[in-house]
Fold:
Amino acid sequence: MKSKIFPAVLRGSALALAASLALTACSGGSSTNDKTEPVSKDQIQAALEKGGDLTVWAWEPTLKKVVEDFEAKYPNVNVELANVGTGSKHYIALQNAITAGSGVPDVAQIEYYALPQFALSESITDLTAFGAADLDGSFTPGTWNSVQAGEGVYGLPMDSGPMALFYNKELFDKHGIEVPATWDGYVEAARKLHQADPNVYITADDGEAGFVNSLIWQGGGQPYKVDGDKVSIDFSDKASTRFAETWQKLIDEDLIAPINSWSDEWYQGMNNGTIATLAFGAWMPANLKSGVADGAGKWRVAPLPQWEEGGKASAEIGGSSLAILAASEKSALAYAFLDYANVGDGVQTRVDGGAFPATTETLESQDFLNAKFDYFGGQQANQIFAESAANVNKGWTYLPFQVYSNSIFNDTVGQAYVSDLPLVKGLADWEEASKNYGKQQGFTIAD
Structure:
């Protein structure tokens, strides 16, 4: 199930969170529990046999069953699973505990876009000492890349969000419109749909940082480059410009509904057939099934439209990891839980509960690939999702202050959705504002 991964606007305490993380990072903050010595499998097994209490902060619903099964398998272990909130609320609570040096959990769910901030501030543990580097190849390329910073591995991927196009087949069939294979074709399909029925829009979009980042990522762009405290931000590259020019057509021609994702109006639009597609992550089926019940049997899944005809490139949107807090005094036991939940038996438990996996073994299994989705008219949608996961472009990096950068998206790029500001100019404004913030926090920002 998807959490609200990329909040369009963060205010007040959320901005304080971003500032505190960045300041800690640039001041060379130290961990309270240095774990540079290798931890063997025997030591991890011994920690399981000894047992003890383990605190996990996470909101992902399938983890409840994972915890139950883990405790049943290892009866000496007691896991306290606490949901302290999602998005910024979760990170504020986590940062407050870290700053206070009290009440810090042993394990926390951290989304990929936020992980660099906690890694750079040394608030979470480098898992290479536990042999995590040996798991290279066990996860999809996009998720594995997202948990690395420098030479360290700072979390184990819990789920993934390879992108695909969800579309209302009934609508496309009704108007005789082909499902677009390219983004240029997507614009053309938007025109035909809206011409056939002025109440129908190809999609709803009022501007979201994560979505924009993902489409630039799919296009091969790498606007963020990070080397320690040295950061460059550049939205003048080909991929960013191509996205801006394409999406500008949809905005200028009023071909997208200016509706906020996850709002009641958004769900209503998909239910009543006025919103025709969504370019989202593979976690979306559960949300469609629960929130767009009237769409059952009408909707299908197709590969994400391409920037180049005949291409297969994809990107991730959403997803999160489990990380061990540096303050934990039970790191071996904590890693055992991470391994169980994200690599071991817990993976299938979560898949059975509706989560989309990050593990290549699961994605390649015939049971997974051949599963039929009643909601999508019996379509074997996992085959499309799995191919998308395998084709995620490599090399994407988030900023070490991405939480803050995303928070100012609506004040920069977002203005292009509601005014005459060109998207290209909005991206330039976002770049400049993010650079200024980075400089204020002590990062070395390339001009």
